[in-house]
Amino acid sequence: MSRSRFLSLSLAVFCLIFALIAALIVLPARWLMLALPDNAMASIADASGTVWQGSAQLALGPRGARYLLPEPIRWQWNKGALEVSHTWLRGPVRIEPGLSGVKVSGQHLQAPAGILTAFGAPLNTIAPGGQISLNWQAFVVGHLPDSGTLATGRWTQASSALSHVRPLGDYRLQVSAKNGVAQLAFSTEAGLLTAKGQGQWEKGRLQFSGTAQASDTASDAQRAALTGILTALGPVSDGTAKFGTPPRR
Predict the structure, then answer these.
(1) pLDDT tier at 12, thresholds 50, 70, 90
(2) What share of residues in the chain are helix, strand, coil (percent, to 5)?
């Protein structure tokens, strides 16, 4: 190969690489809409900007019954990490790739409880109201510590379209790690509807079971008004409803 031909080929390769890099820098954010499968629990309804800095309307839940977030999420690359922001977040969430994996920073989220309908039955039947909050610790995607608290969620001033008792109460969900398995504990902090439950998340599968009933301080009228929500949660026996995920086969 002649020197002039070699230089021409080298220049062509360099231009191609440069063009690819330039294309990635301005890659349309709308391309993200093609990256999520149809059966994903989240979808992008609309997007603008680039994959490096932009915004998008996010919808949560299964296809055909998704909950559209009222405000767009925004993102930008900053000092080697992707920062994701939303009005429900106290601050940006940093997603940083590294040798040990993808690290996600801890953060606090507060949102209307209506978003829980995106997680399907029985929550979409209950039509929850009130506020939810979630605090989570920094973690590496795909890696679970041997022990420690992972996240704490709260549902305060809880209500349901199935009952005129308002509020139903305040509830707490604690997620912790034990021997490399995520453990869930649900409890009642206060309220006329008492609920508790426990479970675990292991190998991508959730196992959870719990009970709910009217509190000892509920009047006869309030107990009657709680019948609808108890029935929606699961089978009722002696005033106590049992709920949870289907048993593993």
Answers:
(1) very low
(2) 20, 50, 30
Alpha-carbon separation of residue 14 from 24, 25, 97 (angstroms): 15, 17, 27
Confidence of residue 199 (pLDDT cuts 50, 70, 90): very high
End-to-end Cα distance, the chain: 66
More confident residue, 41 or 69: 69
> Cβ–Cβ contacts within 10 Å for residue 171, how many?
22
Q: How far apart are CA 8 and CA 167, in angstroms?
A: 75
Distance CA 44, CA 59 (A): 6
Q: What is the structure's pLDDT at 15? A: 41
How distant, in Å, are the alpha carbons of 83, 144, 184, 206 from that of 178?
30, 9, 10, 15
Write out the two tokens for 146: 């041997």
Looking up tokens 């995607």 gives 141
Here the tokens at position 164 are 């005129």
- Dist CA 145 CA 152 (whole Å): 16
Tokens 């349901």 belong to 160
Identify the weakest region by mean pLDDT among 66-80, 81-95, 166-180. 66-80
